[in-house]
């Protein structure tokens, strides 16, 4: 199928990402990629990969040996294929399909997921079905993500998720139900005066109960620009 709304943005180091009206990316992708901090030897998967932004960022900053990028929507899947061809990347494998049915060829060290934030049948849905699927749990829930992680992670493997703060209990409950113990939590704020707008959660398969609450991450500096930490995350001087 041919699409006529593809455009490209540079991520640096020769990496270009293909975006469309329905499948774009935001700050949360950079935050999750940084929080998950993949390692060179890791075999990884990014679930609900969308345009593939998190997989591409993991490749750029951490160079894992393999990344499976799993997506159920065909257009987003095609976007990632175009990005990989233009960027000449062969360590990311796009997977078109339902994560409930997917099984990795090898046990994974790391799974990342920026899932739909809203429970299905809550809040107004976008006129675009593709956008609604990305925002609402129409085809994928937090429980689905954790069950997929249980099947595919090695013992001691990590699952890293970002979501809205109001979903924290849902995430931790779903992780524990799948034998994945919450180990790290970080809140993301616009500035020190604002409540968090995002949470970053890491769980470890087979881990013992103990969760570390990390210092808050502030997106903006006092002058309204990017904070020093956000500059580091974006790779800015």
UniProtKB/TrEMBL annotation:
The name this protein goes by in its record: Methyltransferase
GO terms for MF: methyltransferase activity
Record carries keyword Transferase: yes
Keywords: Methyltransferase, Transferase
PANTHER family: TRNA1(VAL) (ADENINE(37)-N6)-METHYLTRANSFERASE (PTHR47739:SF1)
Alphabetized InterPro entries for the sequence: SAM-dependent_MTases_sf, Small_mtfrase_dom, tRNA_Adenine-N(6)_MTase
Residues annotated as domain Methyltransferase small: 29-122
GO biological process assignments: methylation
Species of provenance: Hominimerdicola aceti
Any single Pfam family the record assigns to this protein: MTS
């Amino acid at each position: 199928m041919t699409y006529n709304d593809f455009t490209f943005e540079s991520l640096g180091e020769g990496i270009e990402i293909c975006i469309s009206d329905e499948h774009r990316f935001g700050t949360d992708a950079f935050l999750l990629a940084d929080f998950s901090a993949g390692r060179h030897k890791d075999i990884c998967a990014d679930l609900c990969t969308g345009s593939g932004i998190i997989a591409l960022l993991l490749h750029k900053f951490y160079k894992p040996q393999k990344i499976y990028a799993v997506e159920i929507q065909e257009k987003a899947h095609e976007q990632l294929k175009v990005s990989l061809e233009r960027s000449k990347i062969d360590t990311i494998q796009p997977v078109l399909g339902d994560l409930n049915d997917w099984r990795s060829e090898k046990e994974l060290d790391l799974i990342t997921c920026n899932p739909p934030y809203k429970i299905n049948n809550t809040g107004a849905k976008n006129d675009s079905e593709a956008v609604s699927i990305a925002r609402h749990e129409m085809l994928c829930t937090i429980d689905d993500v954790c069950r997929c992680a249980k099947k595919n992670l090695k013992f001691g493997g990590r699952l890293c998720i970002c979501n809205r703060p109001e979903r924290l209990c849902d995430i931790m409950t779903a992780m524990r139900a799948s034998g994945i113990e919450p180990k790290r939590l970080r809140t993301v704020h616009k500035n020190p005066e604002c409540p968090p707008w995002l949470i970053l959660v890491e769980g470890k398969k087979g881990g013992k109960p103990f969760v570390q609450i990390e210092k808050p991450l502030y997106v903006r500096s006092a002058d309204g620009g990017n904070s020093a930490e956000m500059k580091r995350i974006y790779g800015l001087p």
